[in-house]
Amino acid sequence: MHVSNPFHCLTLSLLILPPLLITSYLLAAFPHPPAPVTVHKSLASLPADARSWAIYPEDFYTGGGYVSLPFGRVRYWLLGPEKGRKVVLIHGLSIPAMIWKNVAPQLAARGFRVLVYDLYGRGYSDAPQTIYDANLYTTQLALLMQHLRWDKALVAGVSMGGGIATAFTAQFPHLVDEKVVLLASAGLMEASDMSRTVKFMSSPLVQIMASTIPVQKYLQRLTNSTLSKTTAPFNEDDELPEARDKGDDQITEIVRLQSAHLTGYNAALSSSLRDGPIRGQAASFASEGFKKLKGVLVVHGTKDNTVHPRYAPLIFSLLPSTILPRSKLVTLEGAGHDVTISHGDEVVKEMVQFFES
């Protein structure tokens, strides 16, 4: 019978026991409390002589206010008569609430009570250092409506705002007043729709490098130099896909200023591209929340180079069959992505007819 050498047993014990003890300790140790979320400042933090104040001031719309929510301060505006039917307008990926400048005042003039606000990480809303997924955006809107004591509202979103409106309807159907409007809506985009430049710029490693002080200073000098010479729109290969279509120069300028001067802006965009509701919303379109609606208005331009026009009929096909007779698909011939800027009158006309039908 073979008898183990005591020295070998001791050696084996010394090799095995320490890792086991360390692993047991790590598994059993009580965790440290979570660190508070880092919140980066908004356009409100820029000096008074910053170009942004002339393009997109705090009082861009009337009836402005702030509310402090768990992930930072949120800027919002209320337009139109207090007793008007309530409608929420949700902007997209890179451009703050100024994207509604040709729509919100017109809806207010037609008797609607209009809520516009800046998403986290854009405009005058703070930029929390967190994951910018559908839950962050839908919770932001739900808490904002609670602050305003709004029981429910008509909901409209453009670009990524359409994806947010879709997720919001699926998650908080009791807060949606019967109808939803999706303009040049994201929600079903695929990775193949994004250029290699967009994918590269949205990677976490690139964002860490871009947030360093030397890179930020370089971007600021580059932006100031560029804006002093031209305000030409972005090209197809630019890293901000929502600014591809030709349009309002000030829209393009505010995108560049945010990118250069707001520490959390680029990270918010990159996380939204990776984790946000621009993709993966197929189940939301067919959810119980949409089944309870009285209709959905889908509007898309034929020349949209950001969210391909093929997604509009695809969205329509995913809607519950029970609401299709009262839903509508509108195609704007020759329109690009920023339909609220280039075709504001047509958008308002379709929205008002849809809301009042």
From TrEMBL:
PANTHER family, per the entry: HYDROLASE ALPHA/BETA FOLD FAMILY (PTHR43194), PEROXISOMAL MEMBRANE PROTEIN LPX1 (PTHR43194:SF2)
N-terminal signal peptide: 1-28
All residue ranges annotated as the AB hydrolase-1 domain in the record: 87-341
GO molecular function, one term: hydrolase activity
Keyword terms, alphabetized: Hydrolase, Signal
Organism encoding this protein: Collybia nuda
Gene3D superfamilies given in the database record: alpha/beta hydrolase
InterPro entries in UniProt: AB_hydrolase_1, AB_hydrolase_fold, Carboxylesterase_BioH
Taxonomic lineage of the native organism: Eukaryota, Fungi, Dikarya, Basidiomycota, Agaricomycotina
Stated name of the protein: Alpha/Beta hydrolase protein
Protein's UniProt keywords contain Signal: yes
